TrEMBL record:
<dbReference type="InterPro" id="IPR007466">
    <property type="entry name" value="Peptidyl-Arg-deiminase_porph"/>
</dbReference>
<dbReference type="Pfam" id="PF04371">
    <property type="entry name" value="PAD_porph"/>
</dbReference>
<dbReference type="GO" id="GO:0047632">
    <property type="term" value="F:agmatine deiminase activity"/>
</dbReference>
<dbReference type="GO" id="GO:0004668">
    <property type="term" value="F:protein-arginine deiminase activity"/>
</dbReference>
<dbReference type="GO" id="GO:0009446">
    <property type="term" value="P:putrescine biosynthetic process"/>
</dbReference>
<keyword id="KW-0378">Hydrolase</keyword>
<protein>
    <recommendedName>
        <fullName>Agmatine deiminase</fullName>
    </recommendedName>
</protein>
Length: 343
């Protein structure tokens, strides 16, 4: 009998994929700050697992090398891959790794810039290029013609996928896709036996049409942590409250209600250039071997969010990472990384 599985994020990991922010992209005068965040992530991760950093061009590779010579970026357990990339969001451009019969398959879904919002030709080719260069280690490569991003799905490790209808079947990515179409793809490619659909939940400023990794996350097969909003005057309150109601109606693989854990919402974060609200939240944390990297925004709620996440992971070190530089480009820690599990 096959043991085909999409491992949960808390399963042991062999590596983490990161992409170095490149000059000439969308970062503008925030480039150095964004690079400092990726560097901070690598510093935490390298002692725990291999870190694979993509350098999209010669300037990025030179900056990485200079930081390594200066001792600010690790060299041990760190590999640099010189591969073209458009942006840093490895969660959506890296492989989704399936484990079957103690063998890994690196599933490469199409990436179209979140429904054609941004140029994405290099990012769409990223997983294949990294695989062809041998950067993922042992395993097979599988390409899917379906457009799907890693940030749009959550796995409990037991065949259940949690996702949002607005992202997978909203019409922007796969024309004419229905729930049934999506469920068939998830079953065929990732071994999903159940799909939980959310129709509510949104963060203002989100470019992804409701990626689940900004809203609700499995932290155990029977537990979901989710972004809340306690302020009735906040524009997020109605949608996030409705989402909490949907989550309460879901059942785990044993037919029991999930244990639900609510996260606070940081005070509104605004883009300093034009003043629009940014999609800041705490659900975009990153689980790695022995630790959890938690977004921080220089906000009083940072400590509360870290404590709540720490309660869900009592055996892991909780490490806040200032994420304000990433949220300026509408992303976060989880968006910027993709784990490569062991077989």
């Amino acid at each position: 009998m096959s043991d085909r599985l999409l491992p949960p994020e808390w399963a042991p990991q062999s590596a983490t994929l990161l992409v170095w922010p490149r000059a000439g992209g969308d970062w503008g005068n925030g480039l150095a700050a964004a690079r400092n965040v990726i560097q901070a992530m690598a510093v935490v991760l390298a002692p725990r697992q291999e870190v694979l950093i993509v350098a999209a061009d010669a300037e990025a590779a030179d900056d990485i090398a200079a930081r390594q010579r200066a001792g600010s970026l690790p060299t041990e357990h760190t590999r640099i891959a010189r591969v073209p990339a458009d942006d840093i969001w490895a969660r959506d451009t890296g492989p989704i790794t399936l484990v079957e019969d103690n063998r890994r398959t690196f599933v490469d879904f199409r990436f179209d810039g979140w429904g054609g919002r941004f140029d994405a030709a290099n990012d769409d080719a990223l997983t294949a290029a990294l695989y062809d260069a041998g950067h993922f280690g042992d395993g097979e490569y599988a390409h899917s013609q379906t457009v799907l991003e890693g940030g749009s799905i959550e796995s409990d490790g037991r065949g259940t996928i949690l996702t949002t209808e607005r992202c997978l079947v909203g019409g922007r990515r796969n024309a004419g896709f229905t729930r049934q179409d999506a469920e068939a793809v998830l079953a065929e490619t990732l071994g999903a036996t159940r799909v939980h659909w959310l129709t509510h939940g949104d963060l203002i400023g989100d470019d992804t049409d409701g990626h689940i990794d900004t809203l609700a996350r499995f932290v155990a097969p029977d537990t979901i942590i989710h972004q809340g909003c306690a302020d009735p005057g906040d524009a997020h309150h109605a949608e996030l409250t409705a989402m909490a109601g949907e989550l309460s109606a879901l059942r785990d693989v044993h037919g029991e209600p999930y244990t639900l854990v609510e996260l606070p919402l940081p005070a509104p974060q605004y883009d300093p250039a034009d003043g629009h609200r940014l999609p800041a939240g705490y659900a975009n944390f990153l689980i790695a071997n022995g630790c959890v990297l938690v977004p921080a925004f220089d906000d009083p709620a940072d400590a509360e969010a870290a404590a709540i996440i720490g309660h869900c992971f009592p055996d892991r070190e909780i490490i806040p990472i200032d994420s304000r530089a990433l949220i300026r480009q509408h992303g976060g820690l989880h968006c910027a990384a993709m784990q490569i599990p062991y077989a």
